[in-house]
Amino acid sequence: MTTQILQSIKSIVSLNQNEEEAFVNILEVKQFKKKEFLLLEGQICDKIIFINSGCARIFYNVDGVENTFQFFFAERWYTDFSSFLTGQPTIENMQALEPCEVIQFKKKDLYQLYDTYPVFDRVGRILAENAFLSVSKLNQMLTNEEPEQRYLNLMSQRPEVVQRIPQHYIASYLGIKPESLSRIRKRILLAKER
Amino acid sequence: MTTQILQSIKSIVSLNQNEEEAFVNILEVKQFKKKEFLLLEGQICDKIIFINSGCARIFYNVDGVENTFQFFFAERWYTDFSSFLTGQPTIENMQALEPCEVIQFKKKDLYQLYDTYPVFDRVGRILAENAFLSVSKLNQMLTNEEPEQRYLNLMSQRPEVVQRIPQHYIASYLGIKPESLSRIRKRILLAKER
DNA sequence: TAAATTTCATAACCTAAGTCAACGTTTTTA
DNA sequence: TAAAAACGTTGACTTAGGTTATGAAATTTA
User: Fold this and answer.
1) I need a labelling partner for A52 at 20 to 30 A (CA). Which of A100, A112, B12, B146 fits?
2) Which residues contact B122 (CB under 8 A, 6 or more apart)?
3) Interatomic distance B70 CA / D23 C1' (Å)
4) Do A128 and B132 touch (CB under 8 A)?
5) Domain range for residue A135?
6) Do A47 and A104 belong to one domain?
């Protein structure tokens, strides 16, 4: 159950037996059905989530319109770091798109680990840095790429998104309507045939 | 010269005299003329910049097209945290839009401070956290807002941008062409008249 | 301060995305 | 497994932004 998350941690730092046990002790395994919410806007995000299996999307809700901005698959870490840091309610929603098994742990337990085993400071810092790099990259794409180009890049760089995620969520991720994505796909198909 | 940056630091942590002197010792004051580059793509961003006066923009260069994604004024911190962390060359450009006086310090000097005075760990962490919050907010805007709405928000939330920054840079920040911003401004004006 | 450059606005036309509606297919659920 | 819901495509039409070109005003620079 905890094999994957331990492997992920150990790719960052090496843990001795005490440290590993202490870490495993704060872990909680949870199952979510399709469409269930792993995180709901308004909640305070006081946990860090690691996805064992399944996939989920993160979206903002603006006047009833859901703007998807990221997809997460197995082996990926997630927290709304803004809410996690500030203690303010989150405006992000995380929803299972397939049945999900996740491993999560609480902020307060992590902070206790920080105090007992300094090695976890480094884990926390690196997770935070990765979160930063991930959002920065997303912003780069949003700033520099048109929807059609983003879709082409998605196909080549993250094929599992195009294969596993329903198109209307991908459209939302690209900042366009499902009808427009449908047209883009048609354009791409026609271009290929020539 | 160093009054503003010290004040900014002291709003985060309190420093004793030794710590303050050690910090002031790593500071370097620099002047930039209008249009000069404080950071150029391809460089490794191994410094943190604090703006004393003037203003600057950050942009990506994509096939000769400059995509502006942030403006900085006095009292603001800047580093390309991605390049700073990874040691990879930056793809960000920082260009003075007005004559600028900045205070900067090097990564290696900061890391020495970390080792000597633990209080600076907290400074570094909080600057990093703020950097994250800032990119998250940008992501929110890019994901949730249309150019016209973003311009209206810019006018009310950051009037100094609209007042001091040439329109074609603002257009780029909004992800549109100067001609389109001109039309948006006209639309807003007409709407006001009614 | 005169010339050069930059900035901004506007017009005409083009293009991609939005909107609305219809319809067939796939998936979910009772 | 039958009915309901969700999903994806297409068409007709609208709209916002892109492109190209022109010119005036403001700012910079020599």
Assistant:
1) A112
2) B12, B13
3) 31
4) yes
5) 3-144
6) yes
Per-residue pLDDT for B165 more than 80? yes
Closest-CA residue in chain B for A137?
Answer: B82
Q: Which runs of E-coded beta strand occur in B73-186?
A: 77-78, 92-96, 100-106
What mean pLDDT is predicted for residues B110-125?
A: 88
Say how many domains are in chain A. 2
Q: What's the number of CA atoms in the CB half-sphere (13 Å) around residue A103?
A: 19
Closest CB from A60, A135, A144 relative to B135: A135
Q: Tell me the CA distances in angstroms from A107 to A80, A124, A140, A158, B8, one per residue in order.
A: 12, 11, 29, 30, 28
Contact B37, B93 (CB under 8 A): yes
DSSP assignment letter at B165? S
Residue A187 to residues A150, A152, A166, A173, A183, Cα–Cα distance (Å): 14, 11, 19, 19, 6
Phi, psi of B96 (to 5 degrees): -70, 130
Closest to B24 in 3D by CA, of B39, B45, B12, B9:
B9
Strands B47-53 and A92-96: unpaired
Which pLDDT score is estimated for B128? Answer: 85
* Minimal CA separation from B1 to chain A, in Å: 32
- Asked if B167 and B178 count as a contact pair (C-beta separation under 8 A), the reply is yes
Supply φ then ψ for residue A79, to 5 degrees.
-150, 150
**Residue for token pair 């730092």:** A13
- pLDDT cut 70: percent of chain A above it: 99
A124 sits within 7 Å of strand C by its CB: no
Asked if the model's pLDDT at residue B193 lies above 80, the reply is no
- B-facing residues of A in 16-55 (CB < 8 A) are none
Query: A138 and A49 in one domain?
Result: yes
Instruction: State whether residue B62 sits within 8 Å of chain A by CB.
Output: yes
| Cβ contacts of A132 on chain B, cutoff 8 Å | 81-82, 85, 128, 131-132, 135
For residue B96, the domain's CATH number is: 2.60.120.10
Residue A29's pLDDT band (cuts 50, 70, 90): very high
